[in-house]
Structures are given as C-alpha cells and as structure tokens.
Amino acid sequence: MQDRITKTIPEALRIMALKWPEHPIMAKQLSANSWQDITYKEFWEDVQKAAQILRAAGIKPTDKVVILAKPSYFWQIADKALALVGAISISFDLDITKEAFDLYLEQLCVSAILSQNKLETSLTDNIQKSESFYST
Questions:
Q1: pLDDT by residue (tens digit) across 99-110?
Q2: Which residue has the higher pLDDT, 119 or 60?
Q3: Which of 135, 120, 7 lies closest to 57, judged by CA?
C-alpha cells in the first residue's frame, strides 16, 4: 500500500497542509447557527501556535496533559499541539465525578490540565497565555 503515511500525526498534518493548503479539514462553530470552514493550512498554523504556547508554559515531551473540553475545534487543536510537543494527551468524560477525576490525576501523574479557558499546571501556579487560544 504505497499511499500509506508512515509519519507521526503532526508530520502527516504538516504534509497535508503543504499539499492541500486551501482544502477544508473541518468546520469551527462560531455560534449556535454559525460555522466557519477551516483549511488544512489554517489548522496547521493554529496547531503550531498552540504548541509554542504549551512549550512556553513548560509542557515537555512525555508530560501527561489532561484536556478538559467538549469535542470542539479547541479540543482538536489542543490534542494535535500536544502531539507536536511530544506530550501525552489524556481526555476525560466531562461527566466524571470529582472523586474519580482526582484519583485519576494522582495515579496518572498528570503534569497539566488544559481547559477551554485556561491552562492549570503543577509546574507553575498561574499561567496566563494567549487568551485567544484558550477561549472557545
């Protein structure tokens, strides 16, 4: 099978952004009734920006990072940015109990929690980075 991509997910995404820069990859919800098509190029650029923010916040390869977000454009960007950094992305059901969540955080040795509004990390007490990225 010659067309099979044997690269990492970020590398495959970079190649697709070069090959089909104006081709839509997904739609981003702007409001209840409004959507915007996002191209491979736009998506890749957002992933790269998010990866820079994560690195600046102290996220390193092999760090375990929880993403607390509903399925959304934000979640897609965060997941791919973590892969680009080399970190491990962990997703939870948003209906998880606080007790279960706290237990998982302890057992998994989580380095950071990435939410749609902010990044909370055990590396620093308060990180305020690019509010436009962390907002939905």
A1: 888 888 888 888
A2: 60
A3: 120
SS3 content of the chain, % helix, strand, coil (to 5): 40, 25, 35
CA distance linking residue 19 with residue 5, whole number of Å: 13
Which burial class, exposed, middle or buried, applies to 88 when counting CB atoms under 10 A from its CB (0-12, 13-18, 19+)? Answer: middle
- Which ranges in the chain belong to alpha helices (H)? 9-19, 40-56, 73-85, 98-108, 131-134
Instruction: State the Cα–Cα distance between residues 66 and 30, nearest whole angstrom.
Output: 24
Both structure tokens of 26: 């997904």
**Beta-sheet pairing, 64-68 with 34-39:** unpaired
Q: Which tokens sit at 131?
A: 């509010």
Taking only the tens place, the pLDDT of each residue in 32-71 is 899 999 999 999 999 999 999 999 989 999 999 988 877 8
Distance CA 70, CA 120 (A): 17
CB contact set of 45 (below 8 Å; sequence gap of 6+)? 17
Which percentage of the chain shows pLDDT scores above 70?
Answer: 80
